[in-house]
Design a protein that fits this description.
By secondary structure, this protein is mainly alpha-helical. The chain has helices spanning 3-14, 20-26, 31-44, 52-62, 69-79, 89-101, 104-115, and strands at 49-51, 86-88.
Length: 126
C-alpha cells in the first residue's frame, strides 16, 4: 500500500475512542456515529476531559442571548456521572445517548437527575 493508505489508517486509529465496544453496548449510537462524536469531542477538548468552565464556554456559544452559566452548571453535573468534576468522552456520549435516543423513562430519569440538585431523590424549590 502507498503512504496515503497508511496515513488514513493512522488518523482512523487516532480518532477511536477508548473502549469503543463498551460504548457501543452502553449507548444507542453506531460505530460511525461514536467515531464522529469522538472527533468533535477531541477537537474541542484535546486533553479528552472537559472541566466545568470549558463546558460553560462551549455551552454559551449555543445560547449567546443571556447568561446560560447557571443552567450549564446543572447540565454539567447531570453529564458528570462519576462526579469527578470533569467530563470524559464516555460521560458525554452516555448522557447524549439518553437525551437523543433513550426511552421516555430514561429521559425522565435523566431530567429528574438534572433538577435533583443535591441528589437526595427529591426536587425541591431550594
Amino acid at each position: 500500500a502507498d503512504g496515503g493508505d497508511a496515513e488514513l489508517e493512522l488518523s482512523a486509529v487516532r480518532h477511536q475512542p477508548e473502549g469503543l465496544e463498551q460504548l457501543l453496548a452502553q449507548t444507542k449510537f453506531t460505530k460511525k456515529e461514536l467515531q464522529s462524536l469522538y472527533r468533535g469531542f477531541k477537537n474541542e477538548c484535546p486533553s479528552g476531559l472537559v472541566d466545568e468552565e470549558t463546558f460553560k464556554l462551549i455551552y454559551s456559544q449555543f445560547f449567546p442571548q443571556g447568561d446560560a452559566s447557571t443552567y450549564a452548571h446543572f447540565l454539567f453535573d447531570a453529564f458528570d456521572a462519576d462526579r469527578n468534576g470533569a467530563l470524559c468522552f464516555q460521560d458525554f456520549v452516555v448522557g447524549l445517548s439518553v437525551l437523543l435516543r433513550g426511552t421516555v423513562h430514561q429521559k425522565l430519569k435523566w431530567a429528574f437527575n438534572l433538577y435533583d440538585i443535591n441528589k437526595d431523590g427529591y426536587i425541591t424549590k431550594e
